[in-house]
Amino acid sequence: MLFAVVVSFAGMCAALTLAWCYQWRSHNAGMVDPVWAAALGGVAIVAAGLGTGHAINRTFVGVAGAVWGLRLAMHLWRRNYGHPEDARYRQFREQWGEHAGRNMFWFFQLQGVIAMLLAAAFFVPAFNAYAPAPWALAIAALIWLAAVAGEASADRQLRRFTAVTSHRGQVCQVGWWRYSRHPNYFFECLHWCAYPVIAFGAPWAWTTLLAPLLMAWLLLKVSGIPLLEAHLLRSRPAYKTYMQTTSVLIPWPPRKSAERPLP
Question: Which residues, including other chains, have CB under 8 Å from residue 145's CB and lie 6 or more apart?
Answer without folding.
Answer: none
